[in-house]
């Protein structure tokens, strides 16, 4: 396969799933060119390794000995530390944040936590406007996994007293967003669906639209072409291309168009 192609990663992942589909999520885990043989007991580990090596030999695949680690009880994978305790954050990834000095003034606090996300800028601007009505403001850090606001990093608690409040705050013109916690915890647990089109020129079969689903954990993509994106076509795609192959995902994220977000899809 030529180097530099954008679909090289997806093509390689599809090949790995084809070759190791009966072993994945049981004896091994495969993410593109990262492969892990796992077992709960030591004696089972040798059996799993032997089966993996036989499969690699059968399809003439080679491993780089310099990058192989045998008998490890913990290791780093995809930016996380995996061990018998579970999946944990890599300390090296959060070292800069943990060593970040705390702000000493309110001005430093507001500047440090100011969002760079264009969608959240109006909310932050309103927070700054609201903060002018108070003399004392405290900020409490909330871990991302416990934060109901997916893209926010802190929970601002504003303390109002009769002596320090300059005026009564008016109702927010920017209502808070109620994000859903969608962080994927494994392959095909959380994904998104969207429609591309109408495409020009048409496909060879006359179809104008492409229905695409992506798994947020593996970045695996499933797609079909459609003449028109109907609710029944979307439901059939979910049944045949997603659920039948990978099981029922815990979360599917779409926009609010009726052919993707409707009663039939919710019941499915």
What would you say this structure looks like, in words?
This protein has 268 residues and is of the alpha+beta class. Among the domains are: 92 residues, Reverse transcriptase/Diguanylate cyclase domain (Alpha-Beta Plaits), CATH 3.30.70; 78 residues, Nucleotidyltransferase, domain 5 (2-Layer Sandwich). It has seven helices and eleven strands. The strands form four sheets. A four-stranded mixed beta sheet has the order 10-9-8-11, covered by helices on one side. A three-stranded antiparallel beta sheet has the order 3-4-5, with no helix packed on it. A hairpin with a 5-residue loop joins strand 9 and strand 10.
Strand order of the largest sheet: 10-9-8-11
CATH architecture of the domain at 7-98: 2-Layer Sandwich
Molecular shape? flat
Average pLDDT, rounded to a whole number, is 77
Reading the helices and strands in chain order gives HEEHEEEHHHEEEEEHEH
Briefly, what CATH class of the domain at 7-98? Answer: Alpha Beta
Q: Could you state the CATH homologous superfamily of the domain at 7-98?
A: Reverse transcriptase/Diguanylate cyclase domain
Output the number of helix runs.
Answer: 7
What is the oligomer described by this structure? Answer: single chain
Alpha carbon gyration radius: 25 Å
């Amino acid at each position: 396969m030529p180097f530099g192609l954008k679909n090289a990663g997806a093509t390689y992942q599809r090949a790995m799933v084809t070759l190791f589909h009966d072993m994945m999520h049981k004896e091994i885990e495969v993410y593109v060119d990262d492969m892990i043989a796992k077992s709960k007991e030591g004696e089972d580990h040798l059996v799993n390794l032997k089966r993996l090596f036989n499969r690699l030999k059968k399809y003439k695949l080679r491993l780089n000995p310099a990058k192989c680690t045998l008998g490890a009880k913990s290791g780093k994978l995809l930016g996380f530390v995996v061990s018998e305790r579970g999946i944990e954050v890599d300390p090296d990834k959060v070292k800069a944040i943990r060593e970040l000095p705390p702000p000493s003034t309110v001005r430093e606090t507001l500047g440090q936590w100011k969002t760079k996300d264009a969608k959240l800028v109006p909310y932050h601007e309103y927070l700054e406007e609201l903060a002018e009505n108070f003399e004392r403001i405290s900020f409490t850090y909330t871990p991302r996994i416990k934060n109901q606001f997916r893209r926010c990093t802190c929970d601002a608690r504003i303390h109002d007293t009769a002596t320090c409040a300059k005026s009564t705050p008016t109702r927010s013109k920017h209502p808070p967003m109620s994000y859903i916690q969608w962080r994927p915890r494994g392959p095909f647990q959380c994904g998104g669906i969207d429609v591309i089109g109408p495409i020009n020129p048409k496909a060879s079969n006359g179809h104008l639209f492409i229905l695409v689903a992506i798994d947020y954990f593996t970045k695996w993509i499933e797609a079909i072409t459609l003449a028109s994106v109907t609710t029944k076509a979307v439901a059939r795609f979910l049944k045949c291309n997603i659920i039948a192959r990978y099981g029922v995902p815990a979360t599917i994220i779409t926009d609010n168009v009726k052919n993707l977000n409707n009663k039939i899809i919710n019941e499915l």
